[in-house]
C-alpha cells in the first residue's frame, strides 16, 4: 500500500463514522510494532514524529525507516509531523517526505494563528501534503504522575483545559481562511497522563462538528476513558492522538522485566520483546476502540 496523506485517511473515516489512531513513534522498533499491529487488524494508521525526536539529521533517519516500512505495509499509512510551531522546520519536513504536517499556533492570537497556518497550507498543498491545525488549545495535563507534578500557575491554581476550549464562532472563518485539511479542537482533554479524569464537553464537540467542513482531531487521547472516546467518535472525531498510553505500557513492562533479571548483559532485542508486545497490546486496544479495524 502506498503512503497516503492525512486527507486520504480521514475522509473515509468521517464518511464511515469511525476514527483513526495517530501514534507518536520515536524509533524503528516502535514504528514496526505499530505497523504490524495495524496490519493484523486491517486498520489504516497514522505514524507521527515528535519534533524532539527528529531535530537535525534525525529527521532523515526517522523518515528513511518509516517510509521503507510504510511502503511495505498492506494498509494505508500516513507519515505525520506532530505539533510543530516553526514554519521553516515544517517546510523542511514537507520537502523531506512527510505526507502530512501539523502547524500548532493554538497559543497565538486568532489572526496570527490564521496567518501562520495559511502560510503552511499554501506551501504544503503545492507539494501534495496535508495540513492539520489547532484552534483552541489542548494544554499539557501533567509532567509526571503525582498531584504535585501538575502544572501550577503563579496564582496557585492549576491549568484547566476548559479555559481554552475551541470557540465555535471562530471555526468557520478559521477553516475558510487557512484552507486546512483537518482541525484539532479543544473540548476538555489534555496532553500527558491525567491526575483527574477529564470531562469532555460533548455539546461543544457536537456543535463544532456540525460547523466544520473538515475532519476533526482530538489530542490527549491517552487515559481518556473509553466511553468518552466512543462518544467523541460518534460526535465526529476522526483522528485521535496517542502517545503516553503506549509508551507507559512499554516502560512498565521493561521495568518489570529488568527487575526480574540479575544479569543485565542481555541482547537489546531480548530486553525489548516483552515491552514491545505490551506496546502492541495498547495499540491494538486503541484501534479496536476507535472502530478502524477491518477498514483497510
TrEMBL record:
Superkingdom assignment: Bacteria
Location of the region described as Disordered in the Swiss-Prot/TrEMBL record: 142-167
Cofactor mode of binding and number, as noted: Binds 2 Zn(2+) ions per subunit. One is catalytic and the other provides a structural contribution.
A GO molecular-function annotation: zinc ion binding
Any Pfam family hit: F_bP_aldolase
Signal peptide: none
Basic and acidic residues composition bias: residue spans: 146-157
GO biological process: carbohydrate metabolic process
Residues at the active site: 82
Presence of the UniProt keyword Transcription in the record: no
Record: residues binding Zn(2+) 1: 83, 191, 219
Cofactor: Zn(2+)
Binding site for Zn(2+) 2: 104, 134
InterPro entries: Aldolase_TIM, Class_II_FBP_aldolase, FBA_II
UniProt KW keywords: Metal-binding, Zinc
NCBIfam families: cbbA
Protein name: Class II fructose-bisphosphate aldolase
Classification of source organism: Bacteria, Bacillati, Bacillota, Clostridia, Eubacteriales
Amino acid at each position: 500500500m502506498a503512503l497516503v496523506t492525512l486527507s486520504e485517511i480521514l475522509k473515509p473515516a468521517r464518511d464511515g463514522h469511525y476514527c483513526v489512531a495517530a501514534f507518536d513513534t520515536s524509533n524503528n522498533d516502535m514504528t514496526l510494532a505499530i505497523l504490524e499491529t495495524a496490519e493484523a487488524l486491517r486498520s489504516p494508521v497514522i505514524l507521527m514524529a515528535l519534533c524532539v525526536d527528529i531535530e537535525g539529521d534525525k529527521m532523515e533517519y526517522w523518515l528513511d525507516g518509516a517510509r521503507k516500512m510504510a511502503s511495505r505495509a498492506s494498509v494505508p499509512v500516513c507519515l505525520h509531523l506532530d505539533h510543530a510551531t516553526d514554519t521553516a522546520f515544517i517546510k523542511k519536513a514537507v520537502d523531506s517526505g512527510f505526507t502530512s504536517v501539523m502547524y500548532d499556533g493554538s497559543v497565538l492570537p486568532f489572526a496570527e494563528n490564521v496567518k501562520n497556518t495559511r502560510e503552511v497550507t499554501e506551501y504544503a498543498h503545492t507539494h501534495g501534503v496535508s495540513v492539520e491545525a489547532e484552534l483552541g488549545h489542548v494544554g499539557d495535563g501533567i509532567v509526571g504522575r503525582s498531584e504535585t507534578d501538575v502544572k501550577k500557575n503563579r496564582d496557585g491554581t492549576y491549568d484547566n483545559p476548559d479555559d481554552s476550549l475551541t470557540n465555535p464562532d471562530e471555526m468557520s472563518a478559521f477553516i475558510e481562511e487557512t484552507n486546512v485539511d483537518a482541525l484539532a479542537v479543544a473540548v476538555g482533554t489534555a496532553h500527558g497522563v491525567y491526575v483527574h479524569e477529564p470531562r469532555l464537553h460533548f455539546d461543544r464537540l457536537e456543535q463544532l462538528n456540525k460547523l466544520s467542513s473538515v475532519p476533526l482531531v482530538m489530542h490527549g487521547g491517552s487515559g481518556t476513558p473509553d466511553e468518552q472516546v466512543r462518544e467523541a467518535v460518534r460526535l465526529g472525531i476522526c483522528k485521535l492522538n496517542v502517545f503516553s498510553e503506549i509508551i507507559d505500557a512499554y516502560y512498565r513492562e521493561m521495568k518489570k522485566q529488568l527487575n526480574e533479571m540479575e544479569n543485565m548483559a542481555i541482547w537489546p532485542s531480548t530486553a525489548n520483546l516483552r515491552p514491545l508486545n505490551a506496546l502492541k497490546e495498547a495499540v491494538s486496544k486503541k484501534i479496536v476502540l476507535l472502530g478502524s479495524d477491518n477498514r483497510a
